[in-house]
Amino acid sequence: MVVTVKVTGLNIVKARGKWYVYVRATGERLLGPIEGEKADVIARIERKDFVQKWNNRRPDEQKSSYEDGTLGSLVRWYQLECPNYLKLSSATKDDYTKAFTYLRPCFHFELDGISTSELYALRDRCSIEKWPRFADKMISAVSSMFTQAVKRQKMRSNPALGIDKVHSADPNANREWQPWEWQYIRDNAPAYLLTPMIIARHAGYRGQTLVKLGWKDIAPHPVHGWNCFRKVTKKNQENTMVPLVAELQEYLDKLDKTALMICTRQDGTPWDDEKQMQTAVSHYLREMEEKGLIGSGTTLHGLRTSYAADLARNGADTGDVAAALGDKSERMGAHYTRHVENETKVIRAFEGKKRKEAERR
Question: What ranges do the domains of the chain cover?
């Protein structure tokens, strides 16, 4: 009697006309390149010697192992040893991990043979197999890794530099909220969702900072006396000071301080990460949009835009706005307030028209 033993936990992929077998959990290549049909690969996997070797692996043999100079070896170095990767936010690491998982069939590629044109072809295929924005994130992850590799002489150059995006950004994304939209959410949103939104609206923090914002981060200003947030932002390690305006202070005073973090889930426990919090807020906003209670395009990050626009309309220049946002570059102040500057130009144009009409009377 012939007993068939099924080997699980493997990925069988075809790349450049040849077959490869990888460990699903680690991305380690076990077989390949193999020519022929998929049935030939399965026959190799079901051979007694392979099954025995697979079932008798030691823990240290289950680690990823790729030949030096391959894409797989570089990914392993980047995720385990590169200081720049280790400093990334958990959300960015998660995006990069998904990108590298998609790239596993290419892990045997030699780094010296990867060209810009090949990356364009990979990006185009990824946009079809996944979706355009995922393809752009994949290229971004690869480019970030290649940049660090070049600095450490693991690569001669970065072939991913300058690759344009396949995804067209929505000009309405992260827009400034309309006053009536904010008023409705301010009056009706459940507290656990309103808390990160009201802080974003009046302090301008990103999600990755909001989720780590604690009660200990509130203290009186040493000169002016009013309460303010003092927090080193996760994205760029800027030490920011943001005064608590009256509306925000009054709201925070009413919250129960049962947790170290200010923003918590409905049960009072901290959010796992910013993605979990942002997803919960987004689902609620889309539900309100479907009911016609707010317009389309509202996001948690859009409240950061509203915060910056409010500062600009009250006389802050782009440098002041950038500092209040916790951004190092004045360009970011201009980025968040460009629509306000255009608005100011339109107002100036119409005021000039009114003056001319008054002079003719």
Answer: 10-62, 71-151, 179-345
Query: Quick one: CA dihedral 188, 191, 192, 193, positive or negative?
Result: positive
Please state which of the four CATH numbers 3.10.20.320, 1.25.40.10, 1.10.1200.10, 1.10.443.10 is assigned to the domain occupying 179-345: 1.10.443.10
Over residues 85-112, the mean pLDDT reads: 88
Angle at 30 between CA 27 and CA 36, to 5 degrees: 110
Which residues face 242 on adjacent strands?
229
Instruction: Name which of 103, 100, 88, 94 is nearest 13 in CA terms.
Output: 103
Helices (H), the chain: 38-45, 48-55, 71-80, 83-86, 90-102, 116-129, 132-151, 179-188, 191-203, 207-210, 246-253, 274-290, 300-313, 318-325, 330-360
pLDDT at 82 over 80: yes
Q: Place 63 in a pLDDT band, splitting at 50, 70 and 90.
A: very low
Cα–Cα distance measured from residue 19 to residue 32, given in angstroms and rounded to the nearest whole number? 6
- Percent of the chain topping pLDDT 70: 90
Does 2 score more than 60 pLDDT? no
If you ran DSSP here, which 8-state letter would residue 18 be given? E
What is residue 143's three-state secondary structure?
A: helix
